[in-house]
Write a structure and sequence with these properties.
The complex is a heterotrimer of chains A (545), B (336) and C (283). With 336 residues, chain B is mainly α. In chain B, 76% of the residues lie in helices and 0% in strands. The longest helix of chain C is centred in the N-terminal third of the chain and has 37 residues. Chain C starts with a helix and ends with a helix. Classes of the chains: A alpha+beta (545), B mainly alpha (336), C mainly alpha (283).
Chain lengths: 545, 336, 283
């Protein structure tokens, strides 16, 4: 008898507990509705930025956050690579493109009240360019790789494109370069990396600037209010923002969610308004949910397959082209990305730079029989051994590298190659790749400012360590020529020629250019992702529920 | 007793040295370093070398090791290379999350496992016994990550009763005023019941996932200990005296039976704090295990070294606590 | 304990019988599978039928490359069966050697081995295994070795305590007083008597070791593609985003891990009951 009564008690308690849990599942959304009406956007970021200082990181997570806090001298028309004025109202080159004069916007202040002027800009530029500057924090671990890659090198190095930066008036600043540099404004637009920070804040905070204990200060639409490591960054509207009427929302919460499944689940639950960097597989879920709409963010990335000519069988271009012909590139795109999220077309440069494409270049045809024949003609009728390396972590150009590698492995096995799939963790992968130790490897470029950059960073002698130092002199010559000119017709001609040469060389076989899958609540308007993942959210608003 | 304690505490030092030496050596044996991770795909070997020098990582290893030991002796656990935050601060931030998860898992393990084990032991060879033992056997045979995914699929995707991951809904997170850092406690202390319920809902699946194996282990242990205790002579004596079965069990056997269980629970607590990485991965739970794993992947040496020291210390401290409580609970044991 | 009575006692318990049957079934299936349904992981890629739910043609559905999940699971069984056994064998051999030496020779050997064991034990096992595999690079064999190394302190401690209790026994004293060399005493007399508790621990650990190795596979550190390891299959489903939309890709591999570990645990329990006379009292 006693047991029975206690038994019912427990059952009752269990029911109550479950009921509470079930009810509480509904409660959060209630409070969210209230928060929505107050106009705070919640963005789910797939990872945590390491630092929010400018000029430094190749950290995707940082650039989107920086875009809310900082402005650059030059901006982009939303969703494109077209330059528009931002903190600089105009820029004029000298005849030979060695001197650029920028006129800056007047009458605006940083979020901490410091006036914005040419001296502030010079302060920022020197931080990125001069490693000896006390505010470069190079000894505290800042890499400044973005500057080095885009501007050739640092102050005092012969490779540095920049020769001097001079303030010629309170709102006029002049960049003087060693050699003609038509692309300077594009570089300074900097895909979000070259935001202008408040000199007062940088000087006051020292190397800690840009970390959770020393929040970044810029001129942008949102002010960083707090950064809880491992959790979120809370920003509020900048009341003194120099663009009238913006931002359209009162505040912004950027929540770090490391897992795409959790990111999407949060958007579905309504606790997050929009998020990016989802996996291609999740498109089905988004399309099935009437509350959500998919957003396809353009990128400038390229995912490619390295074929290292230092490995004997791959030293012959015929063999490399045979390998390219054996890969079912469209099949891989359809299976693992979907046509809305990726294209494969044989061009090394991305679709947003299609003006640089050659009409003669198309995808390598998928023809295993022909590939086998090409191999035999090149002297490998029985195939050869090949170690195919892939990275163990998702990258924007290969969100699921393992599957792509397995598919390529299957394709190559079908033409007689004995493929061994290999991987190691990301740090080791990068280190070994740089040393040229891989025979074949999946790799990619996360972003390129323009076609010149895209080719420079993968086909010039300083950047082909992973290919055993391979170069093509014709490519170098064309790149040199392109760097000197600002004439679009000449650039188009040069770049399309490079397109053809690189296609024939087949040392880096471009497999995909991806778009990144993002998701937003139906009520969200005004979001136009940038190809660099660094668009500001100032134009975004939520329709009241 | 104090002599014993002093001896034990002094014994911690060589173990800590061993841990730091092991971790330091192992970490530096792993190919690649933080400099390549910082530079990403665009880095060149020259740049990596230069950055390594700027990070002071090209000093001879023994020098670096001694520098680290000196730091630890001064109480400084170093600064993360990736985030430039002090390691100690990061541990302090992730600790409450780990504690919450592990405490919930252990609470489940003890709350369900001990009664199940007692019932199984008392009603030996009955249907309860068989059910409990079969269940425990199954419990120690299930991979944690699979169980987690299954539970997420069932309760979060299929039935939609519970959330799939994370600690708290984004909406309610801003209503939490941190006191201890353990969200459940913080919410309850302030009477913030919507947040408390939300946190409990988020905690449910990860706690069940992490707690299943400890639960099974505790149940089996308890049963075995109960059987052992029940077969003792003094139990027969008590029964012969005519004492009620319940009194026999509760008064005489339980205390002795629970001793080995205390050890097991203590050990589980220690290992789970830093070792719950699989559960933390499946549920995106911001705990210490996942943080350490990221540290290894990023080659963030200070993070892994500092984290290892703290975890080893915790483990040793828990061991000591368990041994002391043993002495307190069992009058027969004396530490001279 | 004579051989006969050991085996008899072993098969007395239900769990032993179940365990042997289960293990036997798994072994048979994994051996027979390649004959019934050959599998060439490189070639069997069919994008058109990727991520299909279970059907007559594919009872466990297809994975993200269009490969049959049932076939992959059956092939993966072999790795899962051997993972735990090999890892425990490594841990047992190295650990027992260290432990026996520590207990027998005492002095600095004991101190060093003790310090080494305590150090290893202060670290969560999975993190230690991750570090080891990071050094060696991922792979099935490396994962097994890592899990094995992590087990060493357990056997070292057990070996040491067993030897300590054995060395005062009469037969050991007798051998020494007769002038036998240390090594002879160790190997001829102590080792055989210390085996039972070590073996019991080993069989109980096989299940844990299999789970830990599968855990490493889940983190991507175990067997490498295209080899179908059960933990790695679940890992792929999770990391590539289809674990919850195509759950068959993770449910079946996991279920079979459970079967393998369950078999190991059943046998382990049975063996412990057979070898440890005290536990007979519990049945």
């Amino acid at each position: 008898m006693r047991m029975q009564r206690t038994g019912w008690m427990w059952l009752g308690a269990l029911c109550v507990a479950l009921a509470v849990l079930g009810v509480s599942g509904g409660l959060p959304s209630g409070s969210l509705q209230a928060q929505n009406a107050r106009g705070t956007l919640v963005y789910g970021l797939g990872g945590e930025p390491k630092l929010l200082d400018t000029g430094d990181s190749s950290d995707n997570n940082a650039s989107i956050v920086q875009a809310q806090i900082y402005n650059s001298l030059v901006g982009y028309k939303p969703g494109t690579l077209d330059l528009v004025p931002d903190l600089a109202v105009s820029w004029v080159p000298s005849e030979n493109y060695t001197v650029w004069t920028f006129q800056l916007r007047r009458g605006l202040r940083f979020q901490d009240g410091t006036p914005f002027n040419a001296d502030a800009v010079k302060f920022n530029v020197e931080r990125w360019w001069d490693l000896q500057s006390p505010y470069s924090f190079a000894n505290a671990g800042r890499t400044h790789v973005t500057w080095r890659v885009n501007m050739g090198g640092f102050k005092g190095q012969p490779s540095s494109v920049l020769k001097d930066v001079v303030v010629t008036g309170p709102y006029t600043i002049r960049f003087i370069t060693q050699s003609p540099f038509p692309n300077l404004p594009g570089v300074l637009a900097g895909d979000g990396h070259f935001g202008i920070a408040s000199p007062t804040a940088v000087q006051a905070d020292g190397p800690k600037y840009g970390s959770p204990s020393a929040l970044p200060v810029g001129t942008g639409p949102f002010i960083a209010k707090s950064w809880t490591p491992g959790d979120r960054i809370v920003l509020v509207k900048n009341p003194g923002y120099w663009k009238r009427g913006l931002p359209k929302s009162d505040g912004l919460v950027i929540k770090f969610i490391s897992d795409p499944a959790a990111q999407l689940a949060d958007v579905q639950a309504g606790t997050v308004d929009f998020t990016a960097d989802l996996l291609p597989e999740q498109l089905k879920i988004i399309q099935a949910d009437p509350q959500l709409r998919p957003v396809f963010a353009p990128t400038t990335n390229v995912g490619f397959l390295n074929l290292n000519p230092a490995y004997a069988p791959l030293s012959k271009p015929e063999v490399r082209r045979a390998v390219a012909t054996a890969i079912d590139q469209q099949g891989i795109v359809d299976a693992f990305f979907g046509r809305q999220l990726a294209v494969t077309n044989g061009h090394f440069t991305p679709p947003v730079m299609s003006w640089a494409w050659s009409p003669k270049v198309t995808s390598y045809p998928y023809d295993p029989a022909k590939a086998k024949q090409m191999l035999a003609e090149a002297g490998y009728p029985n195939g050869f051994d090949l170690d195919l390396w892939y990275m163990p972590v998702p990258r924007p150009y290969f969100p699921t590298p393992r599957q792509v590698a397995e598919a390529i492995g299957a394709n190559l096995s079908a033409i007689g190659l004995r493929v061994h799939l290999k991987t190691e963790d990301w740090a080791a992968y990068l280190a070994d790749g740089e040393k040229g130790q891989f025979q074949a490897a999946l790799y990619g470029t996360v972003e390129s400012l323009d076609p010149g950059y895209a080719y420079f960073v993968r086909f010039t002698p300083g950047s082909t360590h992973d290919l055993g130092g391979w170069t093509d002199p014709k490519v170098l010559q064309l790149l040199n020529e392109a760097q000197q000119t600002g004439d679009r017709a000449v650039l188009t001609r040069d770049y399309s020629q490079i397109d053809e040469i690189v296609f024939g060389d087949a040392v880096r076989i471009p497999l995909v250019h991806t778009k990144l899958l993002a998701a937003a609540h139906r009520g969200l308007v005004g979001w136009v992702p940038s190809p660099f993942g660094s668009e500001s959210f100032e134009d975004i608003s939520k329709a009241t529920p | 007793m104090t002599g014993y304690l002093v001896k034990r505490i002094l014994g911690v030092v060589p173990v800590l040295c061993g841990v730091t030496l092991l971790v330091f050596t192992a970490l530096h044996l792993i190919p690649g370093g933080p400099e390549v991770v910082l530079l990403g795909e665009q880095g060149t070997p020259e740049e990596a070398q230069a950055l390594r020098a700027r990070l002071a990582l090209d000093r001879p290893l023994p020098v670096q090791y001694l520098a680290f030991l000196g730091q630890v002796a001064r109480g400084d656990l170093g600064t993360s290379i990736m985030s430039r935050l002090p390691v100690a601060a990061q541990i302090a931030a992730r600790w409450p999350a780990s504690l919450e998860l592990v405490a919930a898992a252990i609470a489940l393990a003890v709350g369900v496992g001990v009664p199940a084990g007692i019932v199984a032991g008392v009603r030996r060879n009955s249907i309860w016994d068989s059910a409990a033992m079969a269940g425990s056997l199954l419990g120690i045979s299930i991979p944690v990550f699979w169980l987690g995914l299954l539970l997420v699929y069932l309760f979060a995707v299929d039935l939609r009763w519970l959330p799939p991951g994370d600690q708290i809904s984004t909406a309610l997170a801003s209503t939490l005023r941190p006191v201890t850092g353990v969200y459940l406690v913080d919410a309850a202390v302030r009477g913030n019941w919507p947040a408390a319920a939300d946190v409990a809902a988020h905690l449910a699946l990860p706690a069940v996932t992490l707690g299943t194996i400890p639960l099974a282990v505790v149940a089996r242990m308890t049963r075995g200990a109960m059987l052992e205790a029940l077969s003792q002579d003094y139990v027969q004596t008590a029964r012969a005296k005519g004492l009620r079965e319940r009194t026999v069990i509760l008064r005489h056997t339980l205390k002795n039976a629970l001793l080995p269980v205390v050890t097991v629970v203590g050990l589980q607590f220690g290992t789970l704090l830093g070792g719950a990485i699989l559960t933390e991965t499946v549920f995106s739970w911001p705990g210490l295990g996942l943080w350490l794993y990221q540290g290894i992947l990023n080659r963030d040496y200070p993070v892994v070294e500092g984290g290892a020291v703290v975890i080893a210390l915790t483990f040793v401290a828990i061991n000591l606590l368990v041994d002391v409580s043993y002495a307190l609970l069992d009058p027969r044991i004396q530490y001279g | 304990m004579s051989r006969n009575s050991l085996l008899t006692r072993f098969f007395l318990s239900l769990s032993s019988r179940l365990g042997v049957v289960l293990a036997g079934a798994v072994v048979v299936v994994s051996l027979v599978a390649p004959l019934v349904r050959p599998y060439n992981p490189s070639v069997d890629v069919h994008f058109a039928i990727r991520l299909r739910p279970p059907s007559a043609a594919h009872p466990f559905g297809t994975d993200s490359l269009g490969r049959d999940v049932l076939v992959r699971v059956l092939y993966g069984l072999r790795a899962s069966l051997s993972m735990g056994v090999v890892a425990v064998a490594i841990g047992l051999t190295l650990g027992a050697l260290l432990g026996l030496s520590a207990g027998f020779f005492r002095a600095w050997v004991e101190t060093t081995v003790g310090w080494f064991s305590d150090t290893l034990l202060s670290f969560p096992t999975i993190l230690l295994a991750i570090v080891i595999v990071s050094i060696s690079g991922p792979g099935l064999v490396h994962a097994m070795i890592a899990v094995g190394i992590v087990q060493i302190p357990v056997y070292a401690r057990l070996g040491r305590s067993t030897v300590l209790s054995l060395r005062e026994r009469e037969f050991v004293q007798a051998a020494r007083s007769l002038g036998a060399r240390s090594g002879r005493v160790l190997f001829r007399h102590i080792l055989p008597s210390s085996l039972p508790p070590l073996i019991v621990q080993a069989t109980l650990s096989i299940g844990i070791a299999t789970l830990e190795a599968a855990g490493l596979g889940f983190l991507g550190l175990g067997a490498q593609p295209p080899a179908p390891e059960l933990g790695a299959m679940i890992s792929g489903a999770f990391k590539e985003g289809y674990a919850l939309t195509a759950p068959w890709t993770m449910i079946f591999p996991g279920a079979f891990i459970v079967v393998v570990v369950l078999a190991a645990n059943l046998i382990g329990d049975g063996l412990r009951d057979a070898l440890d006379p005290r536990s007979l009292a519990r049945h």
